Amino acid sequence: MNCMSGKIFIDTNILIYAYDLDAGAKHVTAASILRDTWEKQCGMLSTQVLQEFYVNITRKIVKPLTRARARGVLESYFSWPVELNSPVTVMYASEIEERHQLAFWDALIVAAAVRGGAEKIYTEDLNHGQTIEGVQIQNPFLNS
């Protein structure tokens, strides 16, 4: 991964897999991505990602993190650029949803990435290789 050219937006599933020790190969891949983005200081998130991460990592995985541990993880990502989902971002997401025929929550991820200046989104929820609103979609798990 080369982050010299721009920011990489990390979607919720990448963050969850990185902390879900039962996620197998996806855990290994996601943890590697996060190590690399930390090292190169090119990762970014949104408030939506942080919210979804907290709910899923404390309730929906086989061995959930404690709420205190999850809050600690969240706090560590406060040093990254975090795009706030303002009313303008929500409106933009509704336009992306309509224009690209996406689910609204996926469109909100794209809107936050665009507004935050990301070059790429790492996710398994959108079509790998597609460019949406100028942001490239990459699914790092295709070979996992």
Task: Describe the fold and architecture.
The model has no long low-confidence stretch (mean pLDDT about 95). The protein has helices spanning about 10-20, 25-40, 45-60, 65-75, 85-100, 105-115; strands at about 5-10, 45, 80-85, 120, 130, 135-140. About 35% of the residues are buried. The chain has a six-stranded mixed β-sheet. It contains six helices and six strands, in the order E-H-H-E-H-H-E-H-H-E-E-E. The chain has one domain (about 5-140): 5'-nuclease (Rossmann fold). Helix 1 crosses helix 2 (about 25-40) and helix 3 (about 45-60) packs antiparallel against helix 4 (about 65-75). It is about 50% helix and about 15% strand. It is an alpha/beta fold and about 140 residues long. The two termini are about 15 Å apart.
Major β-sheet annotation: 6 strands, mixed
> CATH superfamily, please?
5'-nuclease
Shape descriptor: globular
Classify the fold: give the CATH topology. Answer: Rossmann fold
Q: Which regions contain 5 or more consecutive residues with pLDDT less than 50?
A: none
Give, in spatial order, the strands making up the sheet with the most strands.
Answer: 3-2-1-4-6-5
The number of helical elements comes to: 6
Question: What's the structural blueprint in terms of helices and strands?
Answer:
Elements: E1 7-10, H1 12-19, H2 25-40, E2 43-46, H3 47-59, H4 67-76, E3 82-83, H5 87-100, H6 104-115, E4 118-122, E5 131-132, E6 135-138
Parallel strand pairs: 1-2, 1-4, 2-3, 4-6
Antiparallel strand pairs: 5-6
Helix pairs in contact: 1-2, 1-3, 3-4, 5-6
